[in-house]
Amino acid sequence: MSLGGYMGKLLYVDLTAGEARTEPLDPAMARAFLGGFGLNMKLAYDLIPPGVDPLSPQNVIILGVGPLTGTLAPGSARVSVTTKFPLSNTIGGGNGGVRTGAQIKLAGYDAVIISGKAARPVYLRIKDEEVALRPAQGLWGKDIYESTEALWAAEGDEAGILAIGQAGENLGKYALAFTDKIAATGRGGLGAVMGAKNLKAIVVSGSQDVTVADSKRFMKMVNRYFERIRSYALHPEWISLGMQRTWADTAKRDGSVRKLGTAMVGMEEADRLCGVPAYLNFRKANFACFSCPMADKEIIEIKAGEAKGLVTYTSSFSSKLEPFVTMFEIHSTEQAIRCMNATNRYGLDNQDLVGVMDQVIHLYEQGVITPADTGGVALRRDFDTAMRLIEWTALRQGLGDVMAEGMDGVCRRFGQDPQRGSLAIKGWRSHFDPRVTGMGTMEFEMVVNPRGGHHTSGGGPAYSRGSATEKFATHANRMGAPDEAVARILDPVVGFNAGRFTRYSEDWYAVLNALGMCVRLQINRFHSIGALAELYSSATGLETTPRELAAAGERAWNVLRAWSAREGFSRKDDRFPDRWFEPIAAPAGQQLRLHHYFGQPLGRGDAEQMLDDYYDERGWDERSGIPTAGKLASLGLEGVAEDLRRRDILGACRRELQTEAGPPEPRVAASP
Amino acid sequence: MVAEWTKCRGCQSCQLICSFRRARVFNPTKAALVVKRLGGDTEFGVYFTPRCDNCGVCVRYCLYGALSRDPAAAGTAAGER
Fold it and tell me: Which of residues 13-72 of B touch A (CB under 8 A)?
C-alpha cells in the first residue's frame, strides 16, 4: 500500500555483519504511531531487549522521520533519535533539525535502524538506495566541527550529517551527537552509544520525491500557515533575535537573580554578559533548518582578542553561556563562548556537563575531593578551571574519567547520596530550579519524564511567568485536551494544575515529533490539533480526526512509559530532588523556597499531590505510576499490556484487563 | 529572478515550492534553483538554473525576503546578484 507523506520503507543496518536491508512500512503501524517519535517508541519497545547494556552491540539506534518531514509544512525538519541512553538506562526521543531529517526522507526512508558494532571506526553513508560503511579511522579523534566539515568535503555539502566528537568516542555518558554541526541531538548519551558501535557519523542524502496524497488540500493548509506567519507581528523580531527574544521573558520570570547549580548572579550582570546586546555583538549570522520560517540557528564569532576568529554555533545563545557565567563566575562573554565552543566540539551535553562541573567544584570546596584526586590542580570557579574540566571530561583524563560518568557516577565515586548530593532526576541534571522559576509545566515535566530530568516535552505558557490563566485554557484546547480536562487543569483552588496539564503537553510533544514538526514555541504557536490533523490527512490520505491524532500521541507516550516500566522504573523514580525542599539564599539576602507557578509555597505533600493528579489524568495506576491494562487496551496496546502482565509488572492493575478494556481504536499488532 | 544572498537563511522552501509547481512533488533536486552552502560553512548562495522560467512562485514562499522577480528578465533565465 502506498501512502502519501510516507516513503514506505524502513532501513535496517547491521554494523556487525556490515549488511543493510529494507522492510516495508506497515500502514497500520504508521496510522497508530504516525512516524518519528511515535514509530520510534514502538520500534524501541520491540527491538531493544529489556536490561540490555546501552553500550553493547545489542542496543539499537533508531532515526525516525515524520510523514510531514521534507514537505513545505513550516518547521517540518525534524528527526527523532531513540536509543537506550547510558546516562539513565532510559529511552526517549532525542531530536535534531537542520537538514538531516529531510535528507533521510529524500533518501527514501521513514526510519533508519542501526544495530551491532563495527569492527573498526566507520561512518554510515546513505545515498538513496546505496548504503555503505566507510572507514573513519582518519576522523577518529577529531572533534565534531572538524569531522562534519571533512565529511561535507568528501561526500557533498548537501548531505545531512550526524556526528560525534571525542566525548562520544570515549563513551562519556552524556556525550551527544550533533546534527549538521549545530543541533545537539540525543541528550543522555547518544554520542556514547555511537562511539561504542564504532560509528563516527551518519551521512545521508537523497533525491527521491516526497509526495502528498491530496496536494490541493495539503497546500491550502500550508498556505494558511504561511499567511499567518507572514502577518505575525513578532515574526521579524523572532528572525532577528532567535531564542534570544525570550531573554526579556526569562528575566521577568526569574526576577532579580539568575540561579543555576549552587551559584547565582544578579540579573544586571547576567544581562550584561548574556543579554541581547552581547548576543548582537557576537552573532555573525543566523540560519534556518529545512523549511523553517524562524531561522533561530546561530553562528557566533569572536571578533577580537586572544580568540579572535573563533566561530561556533548554537541555537540558544544565552542558555548555553549562562551556566558558565553563573557557576564559574566567568565575567566575560568571550570566555563563556570559548567554553561553549569546546563543549560543542567535543560533543558533550552542556546541561549535564555544567551540572557535573559544579558538583565536583562544590565537593572540592567541601574537601571531599582533594588535590590527590585532581593531580594537584586546584579547582576554582574560573575560566581556566572550566576549560580544564571540559577537556578532562571529554578525554576521560584524571578526574574527568569519573566526571564522564555523570552526576550519579560522581556521587558513587565520592560516597555521596545522589538524592542529597545533586539536583539530578533519573541521573539527568534538572535544567530549571523551581525555587527560582516556580513549579510550572517544564519544571514538573523534569520530574515525570521517563527519559530523565528533561523539560522540552513540558512546554507551555507557564514558561513565562505572568501569563494569564486564560492562556492555559487556550493552549490546552489547541493541544487537543477535551473541555472537561481543561476544567480540571484550571483548578479552582490553585488556579492552574501543572500535573494535569503536563499529560496533554507530553502528548502534544509526541504528536509534533511524530509528524516531524518543530516544537519550539515560536513555531509551535501556529499549530493546533485540528490544523495538524488536516495536514496529516491531506498528506497521507489517511483520514484522521483531531481526537485520533491526539490519541496517537498518547499511545506513543504510553509505550514509552511501558518500556520504562519494563526496565524497572516507576513512581519511585519520579522524584523531586530533596534539595528543592530546602531554601536557597539569593544574593540580596532573600531566601527562595519551592513555590507554585502562581506563588503559593509548596511542600512535599503538594508535590505528591501533583504526581497523583498527573497519573490520574493519564489514567495510570497512582501507586506505581505505571499504565493500567485498561488504559493500554483503550489505546489498542493489548500486546504491550500482555507483555507487562507476563513480566508481573502490572501488579495491582491486572484485574482491570478483564473488566475495563474498552473498544480499542485503532488496533495495533500485538508486540513483542 | 534575483536573490539577495545576505538575506537567505538556507531553509530551502523556495526549492520545495519550485519542485512542487513543476512536478507536484517535494524534491529540491527537481527545483530550478539551488541553495548551496558557501565554503562548507552555513552561509548560503542561491543559484538559478537555466530551467527557471521566472514564474516567481518562490518569492511568495520566501519568508526572509531574499527573492524577487526581475522585471527586466521576465521569461528568461536569470543569475544571482
Answer: 13, 16-17, 20, 23-30, 36-37, 40-44, 60-61, 63-64
Q: What is the pLDDT of residues A592-644, one digit of tens each?
A: 899 887 788 999 999 999 999 999 999 999 999 999 999 999 999 999 999 99
Contact B2, B68 (CB under 8 A): yes
Phi, psi of A134 (to 5 degrees): -115, 145
The region that residue A198 occupies, defined by phi over 0 for left and psi between -120 and 50 for alpha, beta otherwise, is: left
> If residue A105 lies in a helix (H) or strand (E), which one and from where to where?
helix A100-106
The three grid cell numbers given for residue A32, joined into one nine-digit string: 497508530
C-beta atoms of A288 and B9 within 8 A = yes
Asked if residue A91 lies in contact with residue A562, where contact means CB atoms within 8 angstroms, the answer is no
Sign of CA dihedral A195, A196, A198, A204: negative
- Set of chain A residues whose Cβ sits within 8 Å of the Cβ of B44: 287
**What's the CA gap between A264 and A327, in Å, rounded?**
7
Question: One-letter amino acid identity for A644?
Answer: L
Contact B25 A235 (CB under 8 A): no
| CB-count burial class (<10 Å; 0-12, 13-18, 19+) for B75 | exposed
Asked if residue A533 lies in contact with residue A549, where contact means CB atoms within 8 angstroms, the answer is yes
- Cβ separation A209–B27 shorter than 8 A: yes
Dmax (CA) of chain A = 72
C-alpha cell at position A192: 556514547
Q: Give strand pairing partners of A162.
A: A179, A202
Per-residue pLDDT for A662 more than 60? no
Among A2-16, A256-270, A461-475, A585-599, which is the least confidently predicted range?
Answer: A256-270
Cβ-based neighbour number of residue A309 at 10 Å: 9
Length of chain B, please?
81
- Which segments of A517-650 does DSSP mark as H helices, in order? 521-524, 529-540, 546-566, 604-618, 629-634, 638-646
Beta strand pairing status for A584-585 and A160-164?
A: unpaired
A140: CB partners within 8 A, 6+ apart: A121, A169, A200
CA distance A497 to A307: 48
**A632 grid coordinates:** 493500554
A79 φ/ψ angles, rounded to the nearest 5 degrees: -125, 130
Model confidence at A207, pLDDT cuts 50, 70, 90, reads very high
d(CA A645, CA A640): 9
Contacts of B63 in chain A (CB under 8 A): 226, 229-230, 235, 293
Label residue A495 left, alpha or beta by phi (over 0 means left) and psi (-120 to 50 means alpha).
left
Strand order in the sheet with A9-14: A19-24, A9-14, A111-115, A61-65, A79-82, A94-96
Rg of chain B on CA atoms, in Å: 12
Query: A97, A520 in Cβ contact below 8 A?
Result: no
Pairwise CA distance, residues A262 & A381, whole Å: 11
> In chain B, which residue's Cα lies nearest the Cα of A240?
B64
The three three-digit cell numbers of residue A328, written as one number? 564559574
Q: Whole-structure pTM over 0.90, yes or no?
A: yes
Cβ atoms within 10 Å of A672's Cβ, excluding its own: 11
